[in-house]
Structures are given as C-alpha cells and as structure tokens.
Amino acid sequence: MRLAPVATALALLTGTIALAPAARAAAPTPIPVVFVHGRNADPGVWGTMKDRFRQAGYPDGDLFAWGYDSSRSTNEVLAGQFAAYVDSVRAQTGSSQVDIVAHSQGSLPTRWYVKFGGGTQVVRHWVSLGGPNHGTSLAWACAIWDQGCRDMTPNSYVESRLASGNETPGPTKYATFWSDCDGFILPNSSVPLSGAVNTDAGCLAHNDLLTDASTAQGVLNFLER
C-alpha cells in the first residue's frame, strides 16, 4: 500500500521512514610511483620504501623503479632515457600521470625532465630525498673522470640551468627531505628548493633516508595532496 504524499511527509518528519545512507565517495586510486636511485646504486635500494607503500595500499602494479648509469650526463643522456621510461610506465598502467620519488643524484635527471622535458604535465608530485639540488662539494672528488659527478658540482652547467628562473615550475607539486647529518650532500642547504615543501628529516645518514619510517610516511602524506 502506497503512502499518500501528506502521510509520507509526516513519516519523514517523525523519522519513521529510514533513508538510505548516501553513497560514500570512492577512495582515490593511487597513480604510479617511479622511484629513482642515487649514484652507484640500483633499483634494489627501494625495497623498504616499496614495502611501506604497499602497506599504505599501493598495488605492486603501481610501483616502479628506474635504473640508470650514474656516470652519464644528466641533460644529454639520462633525462631522455628517463622520459622514455616514464612513457613506458604510462603505457603499461594506462595512467596519464606519475609521481616521482628520487634519492640523491636521481634528483637531477628527473628534475631536468620535469623542467625541460615536458614533464610538468606528466609528473603530479616530485620528491627529492637528499638530492644535490644546488650541488655538493663532495662531487669534486670524482668530477675529473665522471660526468655524473661533474653535473653534481656546485655551479655546474646542470646545476645552474636547473636553478635558473623558477626552481619548481608548472603544476607539479615539489617536496624535498634533507638531513643535518647527511655526509654526502655538502652543504645540507643544497637540498631545499624555492617553492617546494622542504622538510628537515632530522639527523639521518644519507642512505637512511631510503629506509626511515618517518620519512616514508612524510612522502606518502605529500603524495596524497
């Protein structure tokens, strides 16, 4: 038996008719994350960080790690290779965008791609863990024979070009994490970028940024923005 309009209105007012709960908005689907290692390392260094991302709900199919020859030129070789890798990730996942989490030297080719390779429309978030974003004096120790080291020296061509104009261009969101106890990035103030969310990770060794739980959570929180 159908209720008359007046009876229905009274029932609603008195709460005798239960209303169906509103549908909950679906949680946002994570977009692919590309992890990029530092000098003389390999994709395996991201094992702990990947585990933390899985625990946070990221599926294996959205976690990628790019490997590269860190002795090669940032702008002439590596940025182009990285662009091709990002394209392959997008083709594999069907995602139009990616997030990037880079450690140390990996910050340079990824940042070059974002700034000069059209990556501002592709990279949603870019994160640098202990990156030599304004150079590190330690790189002079190997700059004579290694182009990757030369690119990391203060005021190199790569460092100067990346620092020119807007350090954090486009709609991409930028974050850096730096440590007071980082013995590789000298000075530590090289890491932060103008326009980025810059976080002091505390007293951590350079490679501990890869495995520190608080740093990983900070990265995850940033990627949710």
TrEMBL record:
It comes from the Bacteria. InterPro entries: AB_hydrolase_fold, Lipase_EstA/Esterase_EstB. Gene3D superfamilies: alpha/beta hydrolase. Pfam families: Lipase_2 (PF01674). Keywords: Signal. Residues 1-25 form the signal peptide. Transmembrane segments: none annotated. The keyword Signal applies. This is Esterase/lipase family protein. It comes from Streptomyces mauvecolor. The lineage of its organism: Bacteria, Bacillati, Actinomycetota, Actinomycetes, Kitasatosporales.
